[in-house]
Amino acid sequence: MSFQNILVETRGRVGLITLNRPKAMNALNDQVVDEMWEALDHFEADEGIGAIVITGNEKAFAAGADIGAMASFSHMDAYKGNYITRNWERVKTCRKPVIAAVAGFALGGGCELAMMCDMIIAADNAKFGQPEIKLGILPGSGGTQRLPRAIGKAKTMDMCLTARLMGAEEAERSGLVARVVPTGKLLDEALAVATEIANFSLPVVMMIKESVNRAFEGSLNEGLLFERRVFHAAFGLDDQKEGMAAFVEKRKPDFKHR
Ligand code: CAA
């Protein structure tokens, strides 16, 4: 794999994708997004990888879609080209868990990318926002849909209608962010969490991701039924036998299917 806009490496059982357009605050264009999805394809197919982290740098996770690249778009250009949003749901369709490690600005498409991940770990300097209204547009990669599911209508309206940025502490309090850590420790913490997940049984991890995502897509009854079916299916796994035997025998489980 050779990439121009991202750095890709493995840290043990974790695949790490680092957005790497620092001069443009990691603004997202079609090339960046295509490269990210290619790296995700690669990590998803790699049996040695159990979890993936997407991060940026200390100043910016990503400051949104590349404004210069789309400034002169007509409706036809935007619609036909499906700018940056083509295959946008790739993080969601990735069956392995994806953690966003966010420092600095996560704005517009950057905030939307973070929200598409399964969990956001934020540095204490992180700032989230959907400031598209200032550009005469609206969020186009899930902001008006995923933000209210995370933080509710009132705060979503506030952020989308006024372009107010939300700091890490408020984001954690509001449910957007799972954990806040000192900026200098962000990557270590995100990798530690990803490693912890990657050492559990991968089929179970995948079942949990699929089940939790169901909560955002259908009725409560359908979600509960899905969860129950998957819960029962887990009893067909060797790893369930190992996990429960290890508990009974007071030892650490040694999961086969990682
Ligand atoms: N697109 C393209 N370039 C961007 C960018 C973006 N979204 N955000 C920042 N940059 C570039 C700047 O143009 C600047 O480049 P030059 O040095 O060549 O001038 C460089 O990054 C540094 O930016 P600033 O000088 O502005 O840095 P700052 O610290 O003063 O401000 C910022 C940082 C608050 C992030 C500010 O750059 C900013 O407001 N950026 C735009 C954020 C935004 O509106 N995002 C939404 C985009 S639309 C979208 O994402 C739609 C969607 O839903 C898919």
From TrEMBL:
* One matching Pfam family: ECH_1
UniProtKB keywords = Lyase
What InterPro entries does the record tag this protein with? ClpP/crotonase-like_dom_sf, Enoyl-CoA_hyd/isom_CS, Enoyl-CoA_hydra/iso, Enoyl-CoA_hydra_C
Q: Which GO terms describe its molecular function?
A: enoyl-CoA hydratase activity
Q: Which residues form a coiled coil?
A: none
Q: What class of enzyme is it?
A: lyase
What EC numbers are recorded for this enzyme? 4.2.1.17
Say which family it is in: Belongs to the enoyl-CoA hydratase/isomerase family.
Which named protein is this? Answer: Enoyl-CoA hydratase
- Species of provenance: Aromatoleum anaerobium
